[in-house]
Specification:
alpha+beta; 16 strands; about 325 residues; four-stranded antiparallel beta sheet; 10 helices; binds ligand DP6
Length: about 325
Amino acid sequence: MVVTARAHPNIALIKYWGKRDVPLNLPVVGSISITLGGLETVTRVSPAKAGEDHFSLNGEAASPKEARRLKAFVDILRARSGRTDALHIESRNTFPTAAGLASSASGFAALALGVSRYLELTLTLQGLSEVARRGSGSAARSLHGGFVEWRKGEATDGSDSIAVPLADASWWDLRVLVCVLARGRKDIGSREGMALTAKTSPMYQTWIDAQEPDLEAARGALQRRDFQALGEVAEASCMKMVSTWLTTRPALHYWRPETLGVIQAVTALRGEGLPLFFTTDAGPHVKVICPGEAYMEVEARLRALPGVLEVLHCPVGGPARVEVQGD
Ligand code: DP6
């Protein structure tokens, strides 16, 4: 039997940064994201050839560290299914890996879906979202299409810390233009960065306390399809997260000088009357969001900016999907 699962990455408009429980991967705050159509992780799950798990990403065997993280994740699903199958798992991304494009989100969403189907585990979407979250928090959001909220949850076992769809992809024709500003991996992953922020940033508690009003504002803006309101709260959320990075010791420098250049250009273009706003994640790239009807002009202006190597165009994407071949 071969199972192929596909999931899109997502970008948070209202950000997740920090954990209230590390082993269960429970967040200190809720978050809201857009699913990115056009980019995806494709994960193929088949029986292991050599009797032990094998993991590869984009044609290369996983490093020992990556393999340990992946195996620990697959073990959660094996334990739930009562099966012990060794698996051959190959993943491919159609976009740059580990450079702030949240490949762990689509990666663990596709893995959770593919492996659970291979092991014939019948999980509800809620159950799947709980499992995906254990792999990477943002992966819980990538199981759904459209606009998604990952609820912080209150339960100590994490059973209510799940992602729920707020609206599907057809609700609002927004486009995400990912301005790629560098190639290669980042030095400090989100996981490590979050732990440092929680330990050392004097802004951390302020960040946590300020999240609920932002979530509320973003839910309202999405419901009303109010582009200006969504942009204001999304940019504010991003900058609050960045303020916790800059006040972490040692400071987390995920941005590059070009990142700030593009952000300032986005503000200037808005001043000229173009509808657009920005967000960034734990990497140098700037994600620009605009309404569908404005994307061609916005894209042309972004491509002309210094430091922009490439612009990826993403419509709002659909949910993760799975296909089974053989028996
Ligand atoms: C800045 O989901 O990659 O992109 O749960 O530790 O795997 P782990 O973290 P991850 O962090 C994403 C952080 C972010 C903001 C966001 O996507 O909400």
